[in-house]
Structure formats: structure tokens, C-alpha cells
Design a protein that fits this description.
single chain; about 50% helix
Length: about 550
């Protein structure tokens, strides 16, 4: 909501606000006659003055009254009454928005169902025709090949050539209705996709409105309460001054920005678990990185090292949590974060490494639709990748790279990354081409088919996804996977943002398994937890 401080200053002096404030301090009682209520409210309005502090969102309320204590009480009551009315107004507006979106959503849902039903009916009605058309096309291809072969030996007037040409003409007559039917099919498919995209957009807006309403961040606060002034302002007047209240009309977006920027107060395992009602499944301490410009990836030269042990413990916790859920068939899970640069990509790589070390055929998929980076870390091409595999343009072996082959080919960018390691079970799949509309691309039927195809080939599939609050694509991807794990850099991201990230994933009906705390300070770690270590690690990536 955008405020005009001058307008809001006048609203504070309105009869409605003044009447409510007078009731709060007892100047107007429940049994006060209606005409007396109006008279007293108007009289009090003349004793109230509001002013705006230049170049700020602050409003000063001044009340002049013969009783200094009553004057300060009335000023404070005016502030409270105004805030109460402002909250009621915001709630009413939010309710109207949500009701409107819900009506729109119902209408679009019916349109989606109708479009999909039309498409299904048309496909069923013409299924036999399209099947025959496919067979005819194959036959035409074979005839064309035969004619081409024969004309190398005979002229076009040869009997065999003419027989084949006559057959070609007959088939083409049978296929004369194919272009028209294909156009109708394409139109119905496009209509189904467009209505579904519109429905998803409205649904996303409704979810955002519900989240904003549930958070209920106040954008107005009382900066300073009024106190009685025992010194008369002017001996010529009957009123004593009361300058006791500055109401800060801070613009909503400024308040949210400041509060969320400063409130990064979750710093311990217990606080995270209590606030999110989700378990902390692992902790990675703050690592000192010496030299280079790279990230602290896992060095697999020494699987017995402390860094490997920490990530291996996290992987074990994930595996145990899945087994406790009585659903041990989970194969696909995503690593995401609230905002960029919280360490989700490093977490995805390390979990893939320890999974491969555990003997499981593991695939690491780059699904960061905004900033795909796994191909850079492993010094491979971004294309072809998952998007090409999903669209059916390449086969699985063309879209993936086996780590052991990268080691043998000596293409890894740094001597410490995965060298001398026998991780035959680990495969990398880069993102591929970046589509114009990533949400529409990954919300297609091809996405589901692609994931099912990967499940047939791999035991564990780890998706490195875009931060949850930066795009709707992450929720779409999450809805198609089994589990989600949130990586949270301690002390960086505001607690409200972290809570919203969990809520976003919950709306997608994804099972959020828990949180990995990254860059935890050693002094904040709980005593007696054996897999927390303090160590130094060197890593560097060569520049291009």
C-alpha cells in the first residue's frame, strides 16, 4: 500500500477516528446520547493538530486540552484508533483481492477442464485416422526410397516405377484431410496449454496474496508515546500542550525491507526447528577458503576426511528420515534455498558425491533456471542437457556426463576436484538451453515423462534448483519430485523469508524433508555433536 502522509494526517483527525479515541479514554461513554457524541467528537477535532515531518514518513499528533494527562491519553488513543482502522482496511482489501482471485480461479478451472475435454474427445474421435496416417506416411517414405532406387536404373516410364507412383497417388488422396485435422488438433492443444498457463498464473497470485495476508506485517507503528506536559503552552489559552506522539507512517515496502533485512536472528539448530516446525538434518560449519575464487567443494581424495564425514552424515540423516517416513521409494529430491548464494549448489554436488560413494547409481541434474552453474564447475558444455533430453532432442547418454570419464579425460578445472576418485556411479546432467518461459517449459507433459525416464536408469536423482523466492519455476519443479531440502545460510537471510520459502514449497504439495544449515559459526554449534568440525580448505578454479 502506498501512503500519502498528508492524507493520512487528515484521516487521523476524522470524526470516526476521534470518536473511537474518545471512547477509549472515557470521554464518550456507552450511554452517551447520539447527538452528544457528534458534538463532543467535533469539539475534540478542533483541539487536535497533525503535522508531517518533512522528507520522512513521520506524523506528529498534538492535542491541546485543559487536563494534560487526558490530553496525552487522547493522543495515544488517536494513534491506536488510527492503526486499528488501518489494519481493518488492509484486511478488507486483502479479502476482496483473494475473493476476486478465487472467483477467477474457479472460472479458469472450468475453462481448463473444458479445453482438455475437447482435446481428449478430438483425439479419441480421430485416433484411428491419425494411426493410419502415420502408417501411410511410413509407407510413402519407403515408396520414395524404392522409386529413387529404380530411377537410377530405369526411366520414369518404366512399369515398376509407374506402379509405385500410382500407389503414391492413392495414399496421398487418403491423406488429403490430414493437414486440416492436424490444424484442428494443434488449435485444441494450444487452447488447453493457454488456459492452463492462465490458471497457473492466477493460482500463483492467489497463493502470494494468502501468504502476504497470513504474514500480516504491520506497516505503521508508534515511534514514541505521548507524555503529559505540565508546562502551559500559552498562559492566554485554556489548554496545555501535549506533544507526545509521533506516528511513523513508514511505507509498506520500506518497513518490510528493513524488518526482513535486519531480522536474520535465527542462528541455532533449536531456533530453526522451533520456528519452521522442520528438522535440521545437517550442519556445515563456516569454512575458511584460502586462495582461488572457487567454492568449497568436497575433496574426494580422502573420503576419511572431516569434510567428507560431515556431508556423509547429512546424507545418512536424509536416508534415515526417508525410511522413517515409511516410504523408501523416494528417488528424486531437490536442493533449493531462499535467496541466491546460500550454498545450495555445493550441497547438491556434495550429496551426489556421497551418494555415489555409497554405491548408488546417482544423477546430479542442474535445474537452476536463472543461473545454471554446474557445467562451469565441472568444465563441461551446458548443452545438450536436461531441457534437450526433456524435449526428446537427445538421448540420455548424450545429455549426461560420467564423472569417471571426466577424470580420465582430464577436463576438470582444478586438480583437487574428484581426481583419483573411483566414482563410477556419479553422472552429471547440465541444464541445457534456457527457454523464453521456463515455467511453461517445465510444466509440460514432457517434464513428467523425462523424470520417469530418469528413475528407470538411476537410484538417486538430485536436482539443484533455483532459489524458491526468485521464481515460480521452483514450485513447479518441486510438485513433480518426491522431496525437497532447503539450504539456509545462517545469519544471512531473514526468518520471514525462510518461512515463506517453506510455505511456497508446501503449497506445491512437496514433502519438505528439512533444512541444512550452512556456514554455521563454530561457537554456535551444539556441544557433543560428533560430525561438526573446524577445518581449513583450499580450492580454486582456473580462469577461462
Amino acid at each position: 500500500m502506498t501512503f500519502s502522509t498528508k492524507t493520512e494526517a487528515e484521516i487521523i483527525k476524522s470524526i470516526k477516528i476521534v470518536k473511537h479515541a474518545a471512547q477509549l479514554v472515557g470521554i464518550i461513554k456507552d450511554d452517551t446520547p447520539a447527538d452528544e457524541v457528534v458534538r463532543v467528537s467535533k469539539e475534540l477535532t478542533s483541539k487536535i493538530k497533525t503535522s508531517v515531518v518533512e522528507n520522512t514518513g513521520f506524523i506528529i499528533i498534538k492535542v491541546r486540552y485543559s487536563n494534560p494527562h487526558l490530553a496525552s491519553a487522547l493522543a495515544n488513543a488517536l494513534a491506536k484508533s488510527y492503526i486499528d482502522e488501518h489494519i481493518c482496511k488492509k484486511n478488507r482489501e486483502a479479502t476482496k483481492v483473494m475473493e476476486f482471485l478465487e472467483r477467477q480461479l474457479d472460472e479458469k478451472r472450468k475453462m481448463v477442464e473444458e479445453a482438455e475435454e475437447n482435446l481428449r474427445e478430438y483425439q479419441e474421435e480421430n485416433a484411428e485416422f491419425f494411426a493410419l496416417a502415420l502408417a501411410y506416411k511410413d509407407r510413402l517414405n519407403l515408396i520414395d526410397q524404392d522409386i529413387s532406387r529404380l530411377t537410377e536404373i530405369y526411366t520414369s516410364e518404366h512399369r515398376k516405377v509407374k506402379v509405385l507412383q500410382k500407389e503414391t497417388d492413392k495414399i496421398r488422396k487418403k491423406l488429403k484431410d490430414l493437414p486440416q485435422k492436424e490444424q484442428k488438433l494443434n488449435r485444441r492443444e494450444d487452447e488447453a496449454i493457454k488456459t492452463k498457463t492462465t490458471y497457473d498464473k492466477i493460482n500463483d497470485e492467489l497463493i502470494e496474496a494468502k501468504i502476504a495476508n497470513e504474514i500480516g506485517v504491520e506497516d505503521i507503528t508508534i515511534v514514541s508515546l505521548a507524555i503529559p506536559s505540565l508546562t502551559p503552552i500559552n498562559p492566554m489559552t485554556k489548554m496545555n500542550i501535549l506533544i507526545g506522539l509521533i506516528v511513523g507512517l513508514i511505507l509498506g515496502f520500506i518497513f518490510v525491507f528493513v524488518s526482513e533485512s535486519l531480522d536474520a536472528s535465527i542462528a541455532t539448530i533449536e531456533e530453526v526447528e522451533n520456528y519452521l516446525a522442520k528438522p535440521v538434518i545437517g550442519v556445515i560449519p563456516r569454512i575458511k577458503v584460502e586462495g582461488g575464487i572457487g567454492l568449497p567443494l568436497l575433496v574426494t581424495k580422502s573420503p576419511e576426511g572431516s569434510l567428507f564425514a560431515a556431508w556423509n552424515m547429512i546424507y545418512t540423516n536424509i536416508d534415515l528420515a526417508i525410511q522413517r517416513s515409511n516410504n523408501i521409494d523416494h528417488q528424486t529430491f531437490m536442493l533449493t534455498s531462499t535467496v541466491p548464494n546460500e550454498g545450495k549448489t555445493v550441497a547438491a554436488i556434495n550429496l551426489a558425491i556421497v551418494s555415489a560413494h555409497a554405491g548408488k547409481r546417482t544423477l546430479l541434474v542442474d535445474m537452476d533456471t536463472k543461473r545454471p552453474s554446474i557445467h562451469k564447475i565441472f568444465n563441461i558444455l551446458r548443452e545438450p542437457g536436461f531441457m534437450e533430453f526433456m524435449d526428446g532432442k537427445v538421448k540420455l547418454n548424450e545429455a549426461t556426463k560420467r564423472i569417471s570419464h571426466l577424470v580420465e579425460s582430464n577436463v576438470l578445472p582444478d586438480e583437487n576436484i574428484l581426481k583419483n576418485s573411483e566414482i563410477d556411479n556419479l553422472y552429471i546432467m547440465p541444464y541445457g538451453h534456457i527457454p523464453a518461459n521456463e515455467v511453461e517449459a517445465i510444466n509440460s507433459a514432457n517434464m513428467k515423462s523425462a523424470i520417469e525416464g530418469l528413475k528407470d536408469e538411476f537410484e538417486v536423482i538430485i536436482f539443484d534448483c533455483t532459489p524458491t523466492l526468485t521464481t515460480a519455476a521452483t514450485s513447479v519443479i518441486a510438485s513433480k519430485l518426491d522431496l525437497a531440502i532447503l539450504v539456509y545460510e545462517v545469519g544471512k537471510t531473514a526468518r520471514h523469508s525462510l518461512k515463506r520459502a517453506i510455505t511456497h514449497l508446501s503449497y506445491a504439495n512437496i514433502n519438505v524433508l528439512g533444512v541444512i544449515l550452512n556456514k554455521m559459526r563454530t561457537e554456535d554449534l551444539e556441544p557433543g555433536v560428533g560430525y561438526y568440525y573446524k577445518y581449513s580448505y583450499k580450492y580454486g578454479v582456473k580462469k577461462d
